[in-house]
Design goal:
The protein is of the alpha+beta class. Helix content is about 25%, strand content about 40%. The chain has seven helices and nine strands. The chain has helices at about 15-25, 40-45, 50-55, 100-110, 140-145, 160-170, 200-210; strands at about 60-75, 80-90, 95-100, 115-125, 130-140, 150-155, 175-185, 190-195, 215-220. The protein is elongated and about 70 Å long. The termini are far apart.
């Protein structure tokens, strides 16, 4: 009996390819899921894992971080309260966050989603490194939509318009960001800003960038 055919990697979403890669080797080899969020992370004032110690030494006590949850260990305190240690990863390294009972209870649906998270944490330096205690968690995509000012899409002629209309037409993409399209028509750039406002997210930018005829997508 012949072996089953190998899956076509081109058919997978980038996030799915990265997750399968992580499941296979235990780390992200070719890229990190947060790579598409770089501009958004800067706009949100997120600290990279590799910069944590320096940030705390500079006097910061409340820090924003973003990451993918790698593992979770739950325990029960002597008083019977549940708490958890989260190991998380961003593009620069790994960090650990402690969630006490109140935050843990409200954050459970987010922890089970497997999606990128924005963490606001109290931070201090100990002998073993940075100690982070979560004060709030939210989906990074939600924070990105609230933080993004807009998006510039550069297209080759009128080819992608039907695909763009289909992609942006859903009510789930309504938001506050402006979308401007630059058409390359006979070597002349014609710029048009859509009247509707949109929820700009790295996922949406990635989907648009893969459309035939789109050669650049920039966050504004």
């Amino acid at each position: 009996m012949p072996p089953p055919p190998l899956p076509n990697l081109a058919d997978w979403e980038p996030s799915e390819r990265l997750q399968r890669e992580f499941d296979a080797v235990g780390f992200y080899l070719s890229a990190h899921p947060l790579d598409d969020y770089r501009q958004t992370l800067n706009r949100l004032g997120v600290t990279r894992a590799s910069d944590l110690a320096a940030k705390i030494r500079s006097g910061a006590t409340r820090i924003k971080l973003a990451g993918i949850m790698l593992s979770k260990q739950e325990r029960t305190s002597a008083r019977g309260n549940r708490f958890a240690f989260l190991q998380m990863s961003d593009a620069s390294g790994v960090f650990e966050v402690t969630l006490f009972s109140e935050i843990l209870a409200t954050a459970r649906p987010l922890l089970e989603s497997g999606k990128p998270l924005l963490v606001t944490a109290d931070a201090e330096l100990k002998d073993e490194g940075a100690r982070l205690t979560a004060q709030a968690l939210e989906p990074l995509d939600q924070a990105a939509r609230n933080a993004s000012a807009g998006m510039l899409i550069k297209v080759d002629g009128l080819l992608p318009l039907a695909d763009l209309q289909r992609l942006l037409g859903g009510s789930e993409h309504r938001g506050k960001g402006r979308v401007t399209i630059v058409f390359d028509l006979d070597r002349r750039g014609v710029e048009f800003t859509l009247p509707q406002r949109y929820a700009i997210s790295p996922k949406l930018r990635s989907e648009i960038k893969r459309l035939p005829g789109v050669w650049d997508v920039q966050e504004l």
